[in-house]
Write a structure and sequence with these properties.
23 helices; alpha/beta; flat; Rossmann fold; 703 residues; six-stranded antiparallel beta sheet; Dna Ligase, domain 1
Length: 703
């Protein structure tokens, strides 16, 4: 069994540190952590170097085996060739945390991978956790254990706070730390995972989910793997009401290739990664600025749920800009109550009282009234968050303190409501506004986006744990071992509880006519061939056949198309099916992701999926309620819900089919490459899979 999150305590919260390969030169890789820990760490520090008696004024030891005590953790800054021996020495002395700076392992190829596996096994067998190799280290800002060779610590110790940074990249992780310090964001811990021979990003997130010093987790990922452990860590953070803001690179094909080359991790499909992170309320940031805007806002630990935004502005134009941003980010902008609007007009006749509330430049002469306006918005408007635009007013000595006092009188009555102010001010006034509890931004859109992120977190935290997915139908057939034709695919899906149209196989035109008579006109006819997966590509489908003559003619025509366009294909005959009318075409599918396993795809048929890209993904398995959420989330949902006088379709039947498909896919996760139900026609009552294809996973697949 893999060690739990608390096994990282010796690394992140040590009482004593050994530096293997310590250098007397404080600018070298083995010298920087000695220097940093001498300056900032209150615990015992043991340099280890067999060639020196003293290092940077501290007694040096020849080997980890010679230490006067078993240090909690050790930094290994030695060449790859002797790292295994150093690891053995550390575990023999009882050291439980190993931070390996050394490079020359899995990033170098097969030989390096074998050596990396060897040091990992030595550490784990000795009861130690191993961070790295090829990592930049870690620190805990409170304890001052700056176990890194990054030059960034030379610029200054980080501000202590409640945001933790976990990064797979050392250099970019260091960049993020410096940016956080420049933004004035307080950090609890910082960790870089390097090659992830043992400790990985999921371990770090799981630790921070339990860490009382951490309330916000900022993560940088190049590759995600080991789905179950990652999901457990993300869920632990969600249950602990700790937001995760993640930059996951590799969105493009070129970026994914670069990430694989850098980390040797499977990148996974970007759309699937989006869906996976969304499941747990993770905010995926595109830039470091966005990451720290959200982390900064979240560090106040206010997470509204309803998403009703009130905007107060001294500029009508800025109010429009912020209103546009609010709509873009999914926030509501309800108007102030009529009675409250009348009060506002009575105070300032030129004000815009709805929402945005434009208090105009008249406030120059009425700063005390700002408090009344803000209080009315918070008390009577019922907003879950406020965004205020005050531009450079806080930078004017004659106004800064008065405006702050007025705003604070109102905000103190509503400490549960996040208030983001758009201001331009030098550090002194800016810090005063932040110290008073306000979130401060220079850009209006960023202020609105930050509140929208807080709402997303609030909703994720409020969501109960997902109910377990239903059990697989008892009579469900196993996954096929070879590609199926449509009839076999439908038979398998029916056994799993997914309704499908009745099909009759006809080997002659006469049999086709007999089948049509039995089913009732109109009917559909399709070729059946194990060698032709996509029938429409060769014109292998005939629709709306209304009589015997049409059926017989279609049989001959389809047979001729196979002979001319796919002469080597085996033809087993034609299937005849009833023509389903009066419904809406949808697509239900499953694709196997190399990291996250089976992923269910849902969308409307035709141009909605192909041109409008109106589809949604969800990891299998899931229940009926989650399937309903999927269905309602697509842009084309009104077509299913009776828009503009249309009949309402049976959304419940569609949700049941989606859920049962997800359960079947999860039960056969290692055996199926893809399932395609296109279309699944939803009717006012019920629905049917009209066409289907199941592709088994190849036996020699390596992932």
């Amino acid at each position: 069994m893999r060690p739990g999150a608390q096994s990282l305590l010796p690394l992140l919260k040590p009482r004593s540190i050994a530096v293997i390969g310590a250098s007397d030169d404080p600018t070298r890789i083995g010298g920087r952590p000695v220097r940093y820990c001498k300056e900032h760490f209150d615990g015992a520090l043991y340099p280890v170097n067999p060639n020196r008696k003293e290092i940077q004024g501290l007694k040096a030891y020849a080997s980890a085996r010679d230490l006067p005590e078993a240090a909690d953790c050790a930094i290994l800054a030695v060449p790859a060739a002797i790292t295994f021996e150093a690891v053995q020495d550390c575990v023999a002395r009882g050291i439980k945390g190993l931070c390996v700076f050394s490079s020359g392992f899995a990033e170098m190829g097969a030989e390096g991978t074998a050596l990396q596996d060897k040091i990992r096994d030595a550490a784990l067998n000795g009861g130690a956790r191993l961070l790295g190799p090829n990592c930049l280290g870690l620190f805990n800002a409170t304890r001052g254990n700056f176990m890194t060779f990054s030059a960034s610590i030379e610029h200054g110790r980080p501000k202590t706070g409640n945001v933790a940074i976990a990064s797979q990249s050392g250099a970019y992780g260091s960049h993020l730390f410096v940016l956080a310090r420049q933004r004035g964001i307080g950090l609890s811990s910082w960790i870089t995972t390097g090659n992830e021979a043992d400790v990985d990003l999921a371990d770090a997130i799981a630790f921070f989910a339990e860490d009382p010093e951490t309330q916000v987790i900022a993560a940088y990922a190049e590759g995600l793997r080991e789905r179950d452990r990652l999901f457990a860590a993300l869920e632990a953070a969600r249950r602990a009401r700790k937001p995760i803001v993640m930059i996951k690179v590799g969105r493009s094909e070129a970026g994914a290739d670069a990430a694989r080359a850098h980390t040797a991790a499977l990148a996974g499909s970007d759309a699937v990664i989006d869906a996976a992170l969304k499941e747990f309320g993770v905010h995926r940031a595109l830039t470091a600025d966005e990451m720290f805007d959200v982390a900064y806002a979240a560090s106040r630990r206010l997470y509204p749920v309803k998403g009703r935004l009130g905007i107060m502005t001294i500029s009508g134009g800025a109010g429009v800009l912020m209103a546009d941003a609010a709509v873009e980010y999914g926030l509501e902008l309800p108007a102030m109550p009529e009675a409250t609007q009348a009060k506002i007009k009575a105070l300032v006749p030129f004000a815009g009282p709805r929402n945005p509330v434009d208090i105009t430049g008249q406030m120059f002469n009425m700063l005390d009234t700002v408090s009344e306006f803000m209080d009315m918005m918070l008390t009577e408007g019922g907003y879950d968050g406020i965004a205020g635009f005050f531009t450079s007013w806080p930078s004017a000595p004659s106004m800064s303190d008065k405006l702050l006092a007025a705003l604070k009188r109102a905000s103190d009555k509503h400490p549960e409501t996040p208030i983001a102010l758009v201001i331009l001010a030098p550090p002194g006034p800016w810090q005063k506004y932040e110290a008073a509890g306000f979130l401060c931004f220079e850009d209006p859109t960023r202020a609105v986006a930050a509140i929208a992120a807080l709402v997303k977190f609030g909703r994720a935290f409020a969501r109960p744990r997902r109910a377990p997915a239903p059990a697989l139908a008892k009579n469900a057939l196993p996954a096929p071992t070879a590609a199926t034709d449509e009839r076999e695919a439908k038979r398998i899906l029916k056994s799993a509880g997914i309704p499908a149209t009745e099909d009759i196989l006809a080997k002659t035109a006469a049999q086709a006519v007999e089948a049509a008579e039995r089913l009732g006109y109109p009917v559909v006819m399709k070729i059946v061939s194990p060698d032709i997966a996509h029938k429409s590509e060769i014109g292998g489908v005939a629709l709306d056949l209304r009589d015997q003559q049409a059926v017989a003619a279609a049989f001959a025509e389809l047979r001729g198309r196979v002979l001319s366009k796919a002469p080597k294909a085996r033809l087993d005959g034609m299937i005849v099916s009833p023509m389903v009318r009066g419904g809406v075409e949808t697509i239900l599918g499953v694709n196997r992701d190399p990291v996250f396993g089976p992923v269910v795809v849902f969308g409307l048929g035709g141009i909605f999926v192909e041109i409008m890209k109106d589809s949604v993904l969800k990891l299998a398995p899931f229940g009926r309620e989650e399937a309903l959420e999927m269905i309602r989330s697509i842009k084309g949902f009104p077509l299913l819900d009776g828009a503009r006088g249309r009949l309402k379709m049976d959304i419940g039947a569609l949700a049941d089919a989606l859920s049962k498909l997800s359960v079947y896919a999860a039960a056969n996760a290692g055996k199926i490459e893809s399932i395609d139900i296109n279309p699944f026609i939803v009717l006012p009552k019920g629905g049917f899979a009209v066409d289907a294809l199941i592709v088994p996973r190849k036996a020699d697949s390596s992932s």
